[in-house]
């Protein structure tokens, strides 16, 4: 015989009361834990809030940290880059190799030293390509590269030439600073273009970067540079511990001048006792296995003083396949 609803209700009341008591107790523990009841693990990982510098500047221009919005935006980037340890530690390693190349060029071009951190946040000092097609350490678009005097074609792409692309980026930044009389706005223009910055300054009737309401990327851009600069100026205070031996040393090389066509860069590399891989590693601006060069333009090719990977005489493999034998890749329709 079925139990009446009234009986079921009476029987369930004690159970509901007990459940509610336990639920309240559990909620209290989650929301307001008692530190006296919590034992620290034997090997704990601690996360700390990071101090904000009292005085902060970008390229000699003061950052208005008294403004709560500016302070919190900087705090965000400082935390993100301090606790994204793997990426920032790789920044230190690569910067040891490439900052000695970039710094003197910026100085010669009259661009403040702080802009070396712009290259770092743009690419991590790697020859990456953005979804939009910006390439190299300075993430320069193809059309912009040509406007700035870089050769960009099928065989040569000087956006990957560290020295030449640094000078091109410096020219853009110097011209933008002349326009705005502000290195901070010049940095913003590097991210969103002079047209974009001009439009926002005009529409918002503002005079500086920190007063502009911008898209997410550009509004974070200068603060990312500032965060990396702050960490680099005091690594240990931000949790980074390393020795010089942990960093990537600069390449040692000599220069060979080429003013004619090169029918085979592979043969060129082996003539200089390095591998084709080493040639492309030191000269990533070379884009094809050959160079036509009908105009006899002069190129300076870097050759490692000692083989980076341990040069050995090449082995020639006979690629003639037996009839019916598959020589392609099992994972691709065509070989690379």
Q: SSE order, as H and E?
A: HEEHHHHHHHEHHE
Number of helices: 10
What quaternary form is this? single chain
- The CATH topology assignment of the largest domain is Lysozyme
What Rg, in angstroms, do the CA atoms define? 29 Å
Descriptive keywords:
Lysozyme; 2 domains; 46% helix; 4 strands; mainly alpha; single chain; two-stranded antiparallel ribbon; 336 residues
Plain-language structure description:
The chain is mainly alpha-helical and 336 residues long. The protein has 2 domains: 190 residues, Lysozyme (Orthogonal Bundle); 52 residues. It is 46% helix and 5% strand. The protein is built from 10 helices and 4 strands. The strands form 2 sheets. Strands 1-2 form a two-stranded antiparallel sheet. It has a two-stranded antiparallel ribbon with strand order 3-4. Strand 1 and strand 2 form a beta hairpin. The chain is globular. The termini are far apart. About 5% of the residues have low confidence.
Layout of helices and strands, plus pairs?
Blueprint: H1 5-31, E1 57-58, E2 61-62, H2 68-83, H3 85-108, H4 116-123, H5 142-147, H6 162-180, H7 183-204, H8 216-233, E3 253-258, H9 265-271, H10 276-282, E4 299-304
Antiparallel strand pairs: 1-2, 3-4
Kindly summarize this structure in a few lines.
With 336 residues, this protein is mainly alpha-helical.
